[in-house]
Amino acid sequence: MTTPIRTERHDNVLVIVSDNPPVNALGQAVRAGLAAGIEEALGDDAVEAVVIRCDGRTFFAGADITEFGKPPKGPSLPEALDKLEASDKPVVAAIHGTALGGGCEVALACHYRVAVPSAKLGLPEVKLGLIPGAAGTQRLPRLVGAEAALPLVATGNPIPAKKAQAIGLVDAIVGEDSLEADAIAFAKSKIGQPVPRASQGTANQDGVKNPAIFDDFRQKNGRKMRGFDAPNAAIEAVKAAGELPYAEGVKKERELFARLMGGTQSKAMRHYFFAERAANKIDDVPADTPLIPIRKVGVIGAGTMGGGIAMNFLSAGIPVTILEMKQEALERGTGVMRRNYENTAKRGRMTMEQVEVAMDLLTPTLDYADLADCDLVIEAVYENMDVKKEVFGTLDGVVKQGAILASNTSYLNIDEIAAATGRPGYVLGLHFFSPANVMKLLEVVRGAKTRGDVLATAMKLAKTIGKVAAVSGVCPGFIGNRMLSKRQEQANQLIMEGANYWDVDDVLLEFGFPMGPFQMGDLAGIDIGWHRDPSKVTTVREALCAAGRFGQKASKGFYDYDEARNRTPSDEVKAIIADFAAKEGHEQREISKDEIRERLLYPMINEGAKILEEKMAQRASDIDVVWINGYGWPLYTGGPMFWADTIGLDTVVAGLEKHGLPVSDYLRGKAKRGESFNG
Which residue out of 48, 85, 105, 180 is catalytically annotated? Predict the structure, then answer.
């Protein structure tokens, strides 16, 4: 069997090279090869220094995730790295691409690190519910200090080579096209000098002298870390690097790593890692399907959605022609887009030059004819079937043949829309989530006649514009809103039966959602879709609107809001709800938080089961992808279907039956057979 590691001699320097495509993952053969390479260097007196580099597009980009959950095969990464660091001959990591996770730990075990300007380094294990497990949490703080190590270990975001050099993680930036030669020259310059070992560094004393570093970091990142176990374990491990000798610190890291690896959060987050990748695969569309080139995009409607959709393409460097019916609406919409970009620039996320580049790609128009040469046109007009059909009929006559026509509808029937054209094979749904320039999810809705190349093109394009896409079949509300409607039904029913509406919200907050249904209503505006007649009151929502309680914008909706938009339950709203409950003959009772949670979440699982049974989603994990990216379902539970697997489908069925709620045959059958959705 050929090994992915080879060695090359350059005078008195041994270069250890990894060639393990696509990302030089640190599988068993690579680990063994690294250990053997160091042994070769130490056993040869003619070798006076070592360089470790990688072929292909990147340095070691992390552990081999396919080995997770399998019996370990030696040498372990910690064993290989300890061998590497123990060398008395200088060892230099030559970094290009990304040095992530185990790859960054390899670099930390080397005595020196050189990198090309475009390289990035990081420890993203927290994104899989873990912490580094090969002494990364102990070597890094000793090398760069606790304050610089904390964001790398506890938030998992990589840093560019220049920043890595500034904090002391990288020793030198070398030529983009001369990495190996420069690394060899650097290694030669260190021959004969005592080697610096990260495990013996003292930079971690900053956290001992100023323990407030850890509390300050927790406070600053508390919102992002809420509910997650791994970031707190990461902070604990970095703190241990200052309080314990190296060997004991490593032992502490292993304990924390093992606890996380065996916990439900890491299982859930690893499930999501694979789920996001699986969502790109369309079972009956071959991976090598030729794609339709998308060089120019048309967007119909310059409102909040249309403008946000257009920004995705502009930011990706794709020209956009945006159409409105009136000049005033066009100017207002493009003005909002510019302000959004300028605000992003003010926050330092893009330059003013990039703002101008994006806006220069935008062509505003009032004339459908200007869409003729677009490769894709996305309609983002009022959610009304007659309006949509009229738009698509017009587009069909104007836009060139072979171009894709897409609707941004959130629940209307794509097949009916497609029937308004002579090209139903080129029609599909692209359901963006608001704000469309920010939200990651894109539901790609496949019509009965949507062609394979059209679907494959949409999925590839989603990636180009930075979206996470999942395919849905045609059904009311598709995947996300269809399940959401079941939760909303129960939320409304619960407050009629006596549950406090703030308890309904708080149950979801405690579960890990960013907000509950009544908070969400206040944020969006309770008056959306209201008929504007205060004398016509048939629902709680209409009663709130009649009382001028439109939501946060009016400082009162379901809740009263202060100037900082902090919410307080309202006596007026309590009275309105009680009045409606009495009129409808609902007896009021105490409702526990357990019942609230079960009645909000279990019907969603049941609806997800029906979506799978009807083949409206290809796989259960696609539903998880939709809910995590579009609706704030907490990532650390793995999504609704994985969470159901975790608690047991029999638990879900029993809960639904207890509350007198429907149970689908598909869900009941799976529970009876002891199966899971993600089996």
Answer: 105
pLDDT, tens digit, 9 for 90 and up, residues 503-525: 999 999 999 999 999 999 999 89
Compute the radius of gyration of the chain from its Cα atoms.
Answer: 28
Contacting residues for 405 by C-beta, under 8 A, at least 6 apart: 376, 377, 379, 392, 395, 396, 399, 421, 423, 426, 427
Question: Angle CA(31)–CA(33)–CA(34) in degrees, nearest 5?
Answer: 65
Place of tokens 């065996």: 262
Q: Out of 48, 125, 276, 379, which one is annotated catalytic? A: 125
Each residue of 585-607: pLDDT tens digit?
999 999 999 999 999 999 999 99
Distance, CA of 417 to CA of 406 (rounded, Å)? 10
Q: Give CA 34 to chain center in angstroms.
A: 33
At residue 208, the pLDDT reads 95
Residue 552: CB partners within 8 Å, gap ≥ 6?
A: 522, 523, 525, 561, 565
CA distance 234 to 218: 11
CA distance 315 to 337: 11
Please, how many CA atoms are within 13 Å of residue 125, restricted to the half-sphere of its CB? 33
Cα–Cα distance between 340 and 133 in angstroms, integer?
Answer: 41
This prediction's pTM: 0.93
Q: Which of 308, 301, 623, 324 is nearest to 434 (CA)?
A: 308
User: Could you tell me where the DSSP H helices lie in 347-384?
Assistant: 352-360
Q: Is residue 489 flagged as an active site residue? A: no
Distance separating the N- and C-terminal Cα atoms of the chain: 33
Dmax (CA) of the chain = 94
> Residue 652 CB: number of other CB atoms within 10 A?
26
Please, what sign has the CA dihedral across residues 464, 466, 470, 474? Answer: negative
105 labelled catalytic:
yes
Q: What are phi and psi of 470, to 5 degrees?
A: -140, 140
Q: Within 10 Å of residue 155's Cβ, how many Cβ atoms?
A: 18
